[in-house]
Amino acid sequence: MTDGLSTLPTLTQEEATLLKNEDVTLISVGIGSGVNTTELQGIASKPDYMFLTGGYNLLDFIKRDLVKMTCESVSN
């Protein structure tokens, strides 16, 4: 989860790639209006695994999708 851009975007992408290479499923969540969607797309394992929400108070609206996706990822 992020509300903008990571402090070290290159390192963030490198670490995400290492995790993906270990078959770890990554879901990225951008919160607010200043989110770098390119970075979020690079972190997420699949395009469908990237979520955007307008603020922390709106996380409940994506909770069901996040839970479903997490459970599907674990069962595969």
UniProtKB/TrEMBL annotation:
Residues 1-66 form the VWFA domain. Gene3D superfamilies: von Willebrand factor, type A domain. This is VWFA domain-containing protein. It comes from Lymnaea stagnalis (Great pond snail).
